[in-house]
Amino acid sequence: MLVSLQIKRQFHRAQIVGQRFPICMVHIKGSVIEVSSFETVAKAKRSDKEVTFSQMPKGCDKKDFIRWRNSMHRDFTINSLFFDPLSNKIFDYANGMADLGSLELRSLGSAKLSFKEDCARILRGLRIAARLSLSISKETETAIHKFSSSISTLATSRIMMEMNYMLSYGAAEPSLCLLWKFNLLRVLLPIHAAYLDEQRIRKFPQNSTMLMKLFFNLDKVVTVDRPSDCSLWVALLAFHMALVSHPQDALVVFTFASILYHGGCKKGLKFARDNAQVIVDYLPEISSSSACKSEEELEKEVSLLASLVLDSVAALTATESLFETMSKYPESPCSGLVFVPKKTAQGVAEIFRVLADDIKSYNRERKNYEIDYPVLRKGFLHATRFVLGKIILETMSSSILKGEEFVQEDYRHLEQESIKENCNKGKKRGLKPDTPELKQEFAKKHKLVEKKCRPLEQEMDIDNQDVVTLSQNVEKETCRLPEEKVIKKKHKATKQQLKTVEKNNDKENDSPSSLLSGEKIQKRKEVPDKGEKSSQLRLSSLFKYT
After folding, report:
1. Is 95 left (phi over 0), alpha (psi -120 to 50) or beta?
2. Is 251 exposed, middle or buried (0-12, 13-18, 19+ CB in 10 A)?
3. Sign of the C-alpha dihedral, residues 20, 26, 31, 35?
4. How far apart (Å, rounded) are the C-alpha atoms in residues 162 and 427?
């Protein structure tokens, strides 16, 4: 604590989190840096973990003693690694590199003693396992189950910090799965734990529930390098709670998300009308799907849904509201723990208040549909509303059973942005049978086509005075040339040769679909005449794929 106070004196924008193991959060130029002393120790006696020179591993000298002694007080073997940036060397005294290689999370020493000393290590361990897709050793799993209830004794600020690390950095869905697996969700988010318990009784796959789909789509938007503010995941929790308590028409939910996404009531309504003719399979959140609602009815029901979400925010911040909501689940335990700060709850409420109070006057239509991550990280309302709407839209579209084609012209910018974000993330995750991976495959093929066509565009120096149009007998949808559809007489070809090329073009069976799918163009079976040989070679070189 003394070191943290010294740091706070140096940096005015600093916040101390935790009591036994204090961490100082320093805010510098939009970033948050965690600072703790090298010799972080608890106030309680730790005679059972005192180390001496005789316990040091072989090959270590006295210079390693300070690093080694400190590493023995760490929580997990992979967290006991030290990196010296000057010598570019990693110091590993607990086989942490081996555990990383085997993708295993293992406690350093006795897991029971470690979690008894600081139960926040449980949350940290699950967060690390979720982010890195690690398995958990049996001893560590047993200790987590035994000490899971002790999480409620942590300071609410520490719980909020750990939960934000879990849900704002691209591993929200696996984090929630692990919290539910080890019964920690019943302590931290009892309403959502009760919902998952009911879904399990109904034998719904966990990853197909709307709650998990919402956070799966959140993980597609944010990463460790591009996190969001905590208000985004708190808003998602409140939104889902409102749907579970008061199931809604699919069109109403779609319109609700569309207005948030487009930043205006008029455009959001139009988009929902044009694209929401679908049947969505989410129970109990979605009650039905109706396309017979007037604009006035939609506006009224969207405002009502926003009011219900505002009521749900209170259950995340007030103990009385939490117990009232949990009365619907008499068989589910409730610790009464709430850890979301009231200031955060007020910010989340402002996200939905514009729809609840005066939806017609809401008009902040977006000029572009790219996510501004620095603004999103700071929790600005317009950025949070936009991403929240995007997540809900993608969640609704991922559960379509049947209906008209969903992705129409007005929705293409949303799809293209999703493709761009998934391609730029650089995550090393396994492919999942969902639309993002299919979009990535399309993006790769599109990139390949652009790469092949770039030399073509450079080679063709178009001169409108000396060109012959080849598109007279070719439909627009099957044009294989660039937009100008012309070729310069670059090699001084005769008029007779160009006419021959034009005639042969009708016989070609190629189409742009064969180019996009990476198929090789079939050679014609006819034997070319000598007069048209040079022209055919030029065209074949232009469209050759390997």
Report:
1. left
2. buried
3. negative
4. 22
Those residues whose C-beta lies under 8 Å from the C-beta of residue 249, and which sit 6 or more positions away, are 286, 287, 288, 289, 290, 293, 301
* Per-residue model confidence as pLDDT tens digits over 209-242: 999 999 999 999 999 999 999 999 999 999 999 9
At position 5, the amino acid (one-letter code) is L
414-438 confidence digits (pLDDT tens): 444 444 444 444 443 433 444 444 5
CA distances 314 to 233, 296, 335, 342, Å, are: 15, 28, 16, 9
CA dihedral 22, 24, 25, 28 (to 10 degrees): -170
- pLDDT score recorded for residue 404: 34
Contact between 152 and 190 (Cβ < 8 Å):
no
DSSP state of 176: H
- C-alpha to C-alpha distance for 518 and 545, rounded to whole angstroms: 7
Residues 6+ apart with CB under 8 A from 63: none
β-partners of residue 487 are 468
Please compute the mean of the pLDDT values over residues 298-313 and round it to a whole number: 95
C-alpha dist (Å) from residue 73 to 37, 62, 473, 537: 13, 18, 78, 72
C-alpha to C-alpha distance for 178 and 44, rounded to whole angstroms: 30
Query: Which CA distances in Å does 497 have to 390, 472, 493, 500, 533?
Result: 54, 17, 6, 5, 9
| Closest to 390 (Cα-Cα) out of 242, 211, 236 | 236
**pLDDT tens across 336-370, in order?**
999 999 999 999 999 999 999 989 888 887 888 99
Q: Which residue has the tokens 């520490």?
A: 158
Take residue 108 and report the two structure tokens written for it: 């350093």
User: What are the DSSP calls for 295-337, one per residue?
Assistant: HHHHHHHHHHHHHHHHHHHHTTT-HHHHHHHHTT-TTS-----
Q: Are 290 and 254 contacting, i.e. CB atoms less than 8 angstroms apart? A: no
Length of the chain: 546
Reference 396, options 263, 286, 267, 261; nearest CA is: 286
